[in-house]
């Protein structure tokens, strides 16, 4: 393998033109789209229009005239097309943490004779924290039971109301078999809640096909919706009528502008909503999602596997003996669109890489995480990133006090 061979792969890449649709800083290799996707050019234009025309000129009229009020379901349906959800089952609102709270609470209400939330011990902390908060709120009636991720499917028993799992693990990239685990939960009479934070826009997902019940996910990662973009919540059609979530704000009401005294949930997916949507963020997210809808998910996955496979191969070849360990499944097919490595000085190594224009991130205690978003990452970027990594390790360039200084966000 050579850099020239990588460049040839890029010239035959059917997704190559998509890169031009993003505003990426010159010379930067961005391998952190799994934490914060880059800015689509169309999003900049869309937000500008939303600001100046819709807000500036339209003012309050834009709730109707610009369709602001329908953004949660319109963008929800668009995201639905990326995750195998037919229209009417996805709404965009709030954060993933809050949507997880709503979905867990609703799932417990749907299985009143069962009082256990089953989840993974090494799951993303916010998911666990939210489950702990619900456990405390519901006062001893509900317990959070944690098992190893790989053992979750077998651990569902008659006490489990809902199983909460991340489809693609945020640290290792390990991907569960969504259909098989859903089936196992159902066989034991439990509901399945998927966290698709590292799946939506990164790997093909077929929620309807898998018979999934509930799912949540992030707007600002692979969906490129911008910092703090709202999250999405999926409720399978057959459950919507009985889905009752506790954050019963007015926009989830059947008739918000009737200003009734008593809460009545909307008959459709809008019952997952609570308050007023963040219109500017929604506009950016809609533009980000459209970039993904313009490409074929199977093609996207094929390129993702090509990039992650190349990265793994080059790291094995060119960084051998430099103190790196692999982390997560060795089979790329069992992984999302990221590759993780371990190094005892992961934090300083990553800061040294960032100083050279290769941006990934670290996860405690010693994981270097590299995300490969196929819309804008090229094979030559993979080559250059591995060369930078090799050089930082071989020369000890990471071993400087400024690279050890921890920032608030890692
Ligand atoms: C990023 C991420 C979240 C983020 O939740 P927010 O409420 O948007 O901060 C939740 N779950 C998983 C698995 C994540 O990776």
What can you tell me about this protein's structure?
This protein is an alpha/beta fold. The protein has 2 domains: 3-30 and 296-404, Aspartate Aminotransferase, domain 1, CATH 3.90.1150; 46-293, 3-Layer(aba) Sandwich (Aspartate Aminotransferase, domain 2). It contains 15 helices and 15 strands. It has helices at residues 3-11, 41-58, 62-65, 71-82, 96-110, 125-137, 152-155, 178-187, 207-210, 237-240, 279-293, 297-318, 346-355, 379-395, 401-404, and strands at residues 22-23, 29-30, 39-40, 90-93, 116-120, 143-147, 160-166, 191-195, 214-217, 231-235, 325-327, 338-342, 358-359, 361-363, 367-371. α1 (3-11) runs antiparallel to α14 (379-395), α2 (41-58) packs antiparallel against α11 and α12 (297-318) runs parallel beside α14 (379-395). 48% of the residues are buried. Bound molecules: pyridoxal-5'-phosphate. Pyridoxal-5'-phosphate (PLP) is lined by residues 95-97, 124, 126-127, 166, 170, 195, 197-198, 218, 231.
């Amino acid at each position: 393998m050579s850099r020239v061979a990588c460049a040839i792969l890029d010239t035959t890449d059917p997704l190559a033109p998509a890169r031009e649709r993003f505003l990426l800083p010159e010379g930067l290799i961005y391998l952190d789209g799994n934490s914060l996707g880059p800015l689509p050019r169309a999003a900049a234009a869309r937000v500008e229009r939303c600001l100046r025309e819709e807000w500036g000129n339209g003012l309050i009229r834009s709730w109707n005239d610009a369709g602001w009020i329908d953004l949660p379901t319109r963008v929800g349906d668009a995201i639905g097309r990326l995750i195998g959800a037919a229209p009417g089952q996805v709404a965009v609102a709030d954060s993933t943490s809050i949507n997880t709270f709503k979905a867990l609470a609703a799932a417990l209400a749907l299985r009143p004779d069962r009082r256990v939330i089953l989840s993974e011990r090494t799951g993303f902390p916010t998911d666990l924290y939210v489950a702990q908060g619900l456990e405390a709120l519901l006062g001893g009636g509900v317990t959070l039971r944690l098992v190893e991720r790989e053992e979750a499917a077998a651990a569902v028993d008659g006490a489990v109301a809902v199983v909460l799992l991340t489809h693609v693990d945020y640290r290792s990239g390990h991907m569960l078999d969504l259909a098989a685990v859903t089936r196992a939960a159902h066989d034991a009479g439990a509901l399945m809640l998927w966290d698709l934070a590292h799946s939506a826009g990164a790997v093909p997902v077929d929620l309807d096909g898998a018979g999934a019940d509930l799912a949540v996910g992030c707007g600002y990662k692979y969906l490129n919706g911008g910092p703090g973009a709202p999250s999405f919540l999926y409720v399978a059609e057959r459950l919507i009528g009985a889905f009752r979530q506790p954050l019963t704000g007015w926009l989830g009401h059947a008739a918000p502008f009737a200003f009734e005294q008593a809460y009545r949930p909307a008959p459709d997916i809008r019952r997952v909503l609570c308050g007023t949507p963040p219109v500017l963020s929604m506009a950016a997210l809609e533009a980000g999602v459209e970039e993904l809808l313009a490409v074929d998910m199977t093609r996207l996955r094929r390129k993702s596997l090509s990039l992650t496979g190349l990265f793994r191969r080059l790291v094995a070849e060119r960084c051998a003996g430099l103190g790196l360990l692999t982390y997560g499944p060795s089979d790329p097919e069992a992984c999302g669109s990221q590759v993780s490595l371990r190094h005892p000085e992961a934090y300083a190594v990553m800061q040294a890489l960032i100083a050279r224009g290769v941006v990934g991130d670290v996860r405690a205690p010693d994981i270097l995480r590299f995300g490969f978003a196929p819309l804008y990452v090229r094979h030559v970027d993979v080559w250059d990133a591995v060369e930078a990594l090799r050089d930082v390790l071989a020369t000890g360039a990471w071993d400087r006090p400024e690279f050890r200084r921890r920032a608030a966000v890692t």
